[in-house]
Amino acid sequence: MKNTMMGRITATAALSALLAAGGVAVAANATHNTTSPATRAVAAAGAQDSALVRAFDAVDRNTNWQLTGKLKIDFPTYHTEGMVQAGGHIFLSAVQIIEPTQKYPTPQGGYDRTPGRGIGHVFVMDREGHLQRDIILGEGDMYHPGGIDSDGSSVWVPVAQYRPNSSSIIYRIDLKTLDVHKEFEVKDHIGGIVRDEVTGHLIGNNWGSRRFYEWNGQGRQIAGWDNPQHFVDYQDCQYVPDRKMLCGGVTNLPQTPAAGGAGAVYELGGMALIDLRSHEVLHEVPFQRWSTAGHVATRNPLKLAADGDKITMWAAPDNGEEGNGTEILTYEASVTPAG
To answer: Which of 57, 73, 206, 293 is the most exposed place for a label (fewest CB within 10 A)?
Structure first.
């Protein structure tokens, strides 16, 4: 069902807030005293942490998220991957599948499936969701854009083969010109990326976010570590001052045959705040709100911001051919950050 005009106005106003916030909240408040890991990290960092860190630390499984807006995207979006606002635009990465991958009976050449064929897109939109530019990214078998993020001057986009243990290209899109720069290649599937605004380093997660990497600006690997969390596979992340990243994702869990037939799965959504110094998961929560097509909202593109006791989420979980097509959903919740 198409949005009402009021629904579009509400969604546009919410996206205007996202554009104003830059995808993260930058206001800093006084440190607070609790015993949670996130709060201890805040205390250690002093007043550098953002309002989003403090608000997210107050989110739990009982937080009452309310859907406050839907913005229907009116052009083909294929399979959405990552989203960010920057430079007055909304960027949405997506993969257009031309030939699906096929699992091998046994691994071949170190791969568990064929490469498939596809086209990688980064759609550039205005705040009302109207397409301004379609940026095509990728080379050869590397056509799968992942989660994206912006550092205020560039948008960073990993484009990988659509299979684990493969390879990727890290691209940078200049916000002023929208010119594309190929920065470096990585010998793994990189499904998401953020830029640490303190060190200038880039942090990426691989297939299923089971491992993280850190590179300097020239693409030299500085560190690598296994994900200590097995809750969800991170799909889209954002940098959060000071030296943290906030990720959302999904895990497909099997159901009993009575709950949906053989092979039925349940989408468990969730979010996690990760410290870029210690690599510790500071705080994580499930998220169970559903899209028009029946997907959990944290399935793919996701960004959050906070203002005082209000935390806002923007998500685009549905593919272009599903349900009502891709919609940017706005959720809001009231929380009580510790003071």
So the answer is: 293
